[in-house]
């Protein structure tokens, strides 16, 4: 499964056109949830990837269009996201796979990017960048094992407390 973003103009345009003009292969699947002061509804449509260039995207079988509607603080927003996948399965299973993908994004990539500022790294040596990324992952896992309320509060709470940091490593 590959998330296709708008900066991939040609493929994004193809997937958008498929979702807008082609009939779904099967009934769509929908989830709704309310948590953290927001309501969110996700609906996934499953379409054939028959017209996708198989030389560039070998194994592409299914195009997914997920429409998200969110209400937070009385404001409603809607967006669409597109995925290309090599798996032909039910819409409900595809929606669950997308939710697992976002779980990884929210629990690992977002904290590394936003809290630990990984995108602001100024290294050019590929091995050094990989090592720094692994160290960030270890940091996140150590702090979660200590059951801090958030990574931000953990970093603030441990700032300049070298002895406590070394105790975490034991």
Structure characterization notes:
With 170 residues, the protein is an alpha+beta fold. The protein has a domain at 1-87. Helix content is 43%, strand content 25%. The chain contains 5 helices and 5 strands; from the N terminus they run βαββββαααα. It has a 5-stranded antiparallel β-sheet with strand order 1-5-4-3-2, sandwiched between helices. A hairpin with a 2-residue loop joins strand 4 (62-72) and strand 5 (75-85). It is globular, with a radius of gyration of 20 Å.
Spatial sequence of strands, sheet with the most strands: 1-5-4-3-2
Number of strands: 5
Q: Extract low-pLDDT stretches.
A: none
Secondary-structure element series? EHEEEEHHHH
Largest sheet: 5 strands, antiparallel
Estimate what percentage of residues fall within beta strands: 25-35%
Properties at a glance:
170 residues, alpha+beta, 5-stranded antiparallel beta sheet
Summarize this, please?
The protein has a 5-stranded antiparallel beta sheet with strand order 1-5-4-3-2, with helices on both faces.
Outline the secondary-structure elements.
Layout (H helix, E strand, L loop, with lengths): L1 E3 L4 H13 L7 E7 L2 E11 L13 E11 L2 E11 L5 H25 L10 H20 L5 H8 L3 H7 L2
